[in-house]
Amino acid sequence: MTAAPPPTPTQARQALAGVVLTVCLWGGNVVLLKALLLWGHLNAETINLGRFLVAGAVLVGLSVRANGWPRWDARTWGQVALVGLLGNTLFQAFFLRAIGANPAGVAGLINGIVPVLVVPLGLLLGQRASGRQIGGVALAFAGLLVLLAVTLHPGTAVTPGGFAWVLAAAGTWALYTLWNRPLTERLGAVPFVAFSLALGCLPYVLWALPHVAPLPTVPPWGWGGIVLSALGANVVAYVGWANGARVLGAARTSVWNTVAPAVALLLSAGVLHERLPPGVWLGALVILAGAALANWPGRTPAGQRSRRPQPE
Which of 24, 55, 84, 208 could form a disulfide with 196 if both were Cys (CB 3.0 to 4.6 A apart)? Predict the structure, then answer.
């Protein structure tokens, strides 16, 4: 195989801009969903159903247009459906519950906790971790303990039950991340994510249909928010992230994931006027510092460099 040529400065700048836009969209999406739950007369089932329909249709259309209909065997279709079930039906159910049960700034920490959980889960699956990664995980877990201590304080906006939904969502997405990597490498990122979403959300769609909010009670901006969330966080952001991983490499891209929770914290304070106790800010900063350390690009010996970007 011939190694791909290095990206031009223009390609690198465009890829970096796409990654920065992605983390801003992901951070802003948490605040948008919280606003839809608070003021849009929408429940979690209606929001997720709308997001699945919009994002699924767009992503499947993009995939088929670019690559044609997948010619996978029955086993591969089953694997895509099962991993999609984890990353869509289960994760999205936990994700909206976490947003509903917590301040948006706390729920936004899911993006920062995920890369920290990936390391110990990867160790259980036989993957290796560097000393820097283990140190970053240890630091992030110290931040989690700070947040846990805050939840035990009477009268705080963050409760143990609400924080449990944050950890459940982060743990589910961490498992999805580990299990989707070999499939995205083998099948292609866009086909995998498109059809894993389309198949993986089916159980949730069937469960959510009886719970859809009455259409006349939802303001037009509520439906617009659902479409914006689906196209921004699930389509535009994904394409930007995948392109960043392809051009810049997975290591340089993944460290930016820690910016999304910071965006959510700032927007939750500025837009939703959330006033979080100092302990939450301290715990969040420690978690994000640990996540950044665990994901910081390390030096790879020249003879061990992969010839293909590792998809996220």
Answer: 84
Q: How many CB atoms lie within 10 A of CB 115?
A: 26
Supply the pTM of this predicted model: 0.86
Report whether 26 contacts 237 (CB < 8 A): yes
In angstroms and rounded to an integer, the radius of gyration of the C-alpha atoms of the chain is 19
Residue 79 phi/psi, 5° resolution? -65, -45
Contact 79, 262 (CB under 8 A): no
One-letter-per-residue 3-state SS of 106-128: HHCCHHHHHHHHHHHHHHHCCCC
- Centroid of chain to Cα 312: 10
Cβ neighbours of 68 (radius 10 Å): 9
Whole-angstrom Cα distance, residue 135 to residue 291?
10
Query: How large is the angle between the packed helices 44-67 and 189-200, nearest 10 degrees?
Result: 140
State how far the Cα of 302 lies from the Cα of 276, in Å rounded to an integer. Answer: 46
Task: Show the 3-state SS of 213-229.
Answer: CCHHHCCHHHHHHHHHH
3-state secondary structure of 41: coil
Give the burial class of 211: count Cβ atoms within 10 A of its Cβ; 0-12 exposed, 13-18 middle, 19 or more buried: exposed
Q: Which residue has the higher pLDDT, 308 or 253?
A: 253
Angle at 151 between CA 148 and CA 152, to 5 degrees: 95
pLDDT at site 4: 61
